[in-house]
Fold this protein.
Amino acid sequence: MRDVEVAATAARAAAAVLTGLREEGRLTGRELGDAGDAAAQAAITGVLTEQRPDDAVFSEEAVDDRRRLTADRVWIVDPLDGTREYGEAPRPDWAVHVALWAAGELTAAAVALPALREVLVTDPPPVVSPPAHGRPRIAVSRTRPPEVAATAAAALDAELVPMGSAGWKVTAVVRGEADAYVHAGGMYQWDSAAPVAVAQAAGLTAVRLDGSPLRYNAPDPSLPDLLVCRPHLAERLLAAVRPGSQPLT
C-alpha cells in the first residue's frame, strides 16, 4: 500500500468512527468532542501500527515522542480537527488530518471531510475550481478571527467568511468555496500539515505570513500562522500581511 493510501485509509477509519459516534446521539458538546478525539486517535493508530509499524507518529492527541526529531518518517496527525464544531451537531466544518513527513518534506497526506463524505489526497491531487465572479472570499476563524484577516480583506476588497476547523478552511480554498485562508496565532503543526500538503499538491500557494516556507516536524509544535490562497492572489496578500510590509496599491 502506497503512503498516500495509508493516509487515506487512516483518515477514513477515523471519519467512520467519528460519524458513528455522533450519529448515536448519546453525547453532545464537550463530551462528544472528547470521546471523538479519543476514538479517532485509536482508529488512526490502529491503521498506522498495522501498515507502517516502524514510523514515528506526531499527534495532537498523544504525548510528543521526541524520537520523531531523528526519525526519517513521521506521521503528523490531527484525529479530529475542529473538536468544537464536531460537538455542535449538525455542523459540518470539521475534519481528520493524516500527513507523512519524510526527509524534510510533506510527501503524502489525506484530509477527510466526513460531513461531505469526501477524502482529499495529495495523489491524485484535487482539481481547484476556477475563481467565482464577484468579490474574493477569505476563510477566517469563526471563533478567533485574527486582525490580519481584516487587513487581507481590505487589500483585496474581499469578503470574510467565518468557518470552523483549519482543515475545513484550507480545503474550502481547494474546493473553490474560498479564495484564501489567512490565520495568525494559536495553531500547531498538526492543524495544517495534511491540508497544506493537499493544497500544495493542488497547485495552491501555502506559506507563512512572512512568505517563508511552512516547516514541519520541528522541535516546537507551534506553527502559528499561514496563508493559503490561489497563486494569483499571493503577491497582493503577502504584501498586506507580511510583518512590516505595506499593502500594494
Summary: Residues 42 and 110 are 17 Å apart (CA to CA). The chain has a mean pLDDT of 94.
